[in-house]
Amino acid sequence: EMSASLVGSEMCIRDRLEDDTYEKMTAQADAYALEIKAAFKEKGIREYVDSYTNQLFVILTEEQAEVLGKEYTFEHQQDLADGSKVVRFCTSWATTEAEKDQLIRDIRAL
Q1: Would the CA dihedral through 24, 29, 34, 36 be positive or negative?
Q2: Burial group, residue 91, by CB count within 10 angstroms (0-12, 13-18, 19+)
Q3: Whether the Cβ atoms of residue 77 and residue 88 lie closer than 8 Å to each other
Q4: Most-buried pick from 11, 25, 79, 91 (CB within 10 A)?
Q5: What is the pLDDT of residue 1?
Q6: Are 68 and 85 in contact (CB under 8 A)?
């Protein structure tokens, strides 16, 4: 349900933009996600799926998920046998540079 409405709203936005603004906005979301991906990697947090889009699927310990969950919204995908959690972080055209930078600082502080 949620992804259908997301796709619908993205399509509405795209239809209203006559130039390459939509592509620029989504490219920025992808670029921010890659910076966040690098921060997870630097911290030794593994990816569940290797993604180069605005969606990141990472494996967090319960403690890491709890700490990040106090300040950020992310989607729990599944629990793994070792007790860790696969979660999905997603950037969008509305993600600000300040939000991205704060998340990176918080990842580094885990």
Answers
A1: positive
A2: buried
A3: yes
A4: 91
A5: 33
A6: no
